[in-house]
Amino acid sequence: xxxxxxxxxxxxxxxxxxxxxxxxxxxxxxxxxxxxxxxxxxxxxxxxxxxxxxxxxxxxxxxxxxxxxxxxxxxxxxxxxxxxxxxxxxxxxxxxxxxxxxxxxxxxxxxxxxxxxxxxxxxxxxxxxxxxxxxxxxxxxxxxxxxxxxxxxxxxxxxxxxxxxxxxxxxxxxxxxxxxxxxxxxxxxxxxxxxxxxxxxxxxxxxxxxxxxxxxxxxxxxxxxxxxxxxxxxxxxxxxxxxxxxxxxxxxx
Length: 253
What we know:
Low-confidence stretches: 184-198
Radius of gyration: 33 Å
Shape: elongated
Helix content: 40-55%
Number of helices: 7
Distance between the termini: 122 Å
Structural class: alpha/beta
Strand content: 5-15%
């Protein structure tokens, strides 16, 4: 436990250029204080001193503004920058070398017992205000953008942003597919991920494509109608001229 605390203090100098001395880090960094409280309360939790563990974590929350359940598993060299408002649930697992900024929530989406909080693999960075919810896995080296809401697994080394969070690589692929589809007369339906076929956003895109196609057809029909009207007018004029020169016409008698 003490080795982990020593690493928690040392890692600050690598990830925060504002850090100057060990004394400053030990006395003024709430993220470091929260991890020290958690290392102790987690040890109590493992010894089945559940009330003492919860009380210890409660004191840490009161002093730092960072709430970490004593049952959460936190790896080595984890850095919580600023930290105010960070919430980490009971079954959350945070791997080595992860970084969390203020306002991050590693929360659950179920009231059932068992695994209900996220797992962060090594080297994950989660931006300020992001919400990572449910028993999902954030792959090693992944980055979560500020204020993103993540409810699905994120692959290793990917970047997820938005509400709900989407992978930037997937967005790029979708954009390329859309540009290719626009070169044809009709855009394809399956531009997005097959797993999202019942996603409201995917359905909205499909409906938008249908509306655009319908509008194009209406424009073509309007042009054809004008051409037919013009041909009908020409045909009427030719009939009147032929009648005027017809010797058998009643008007010539």
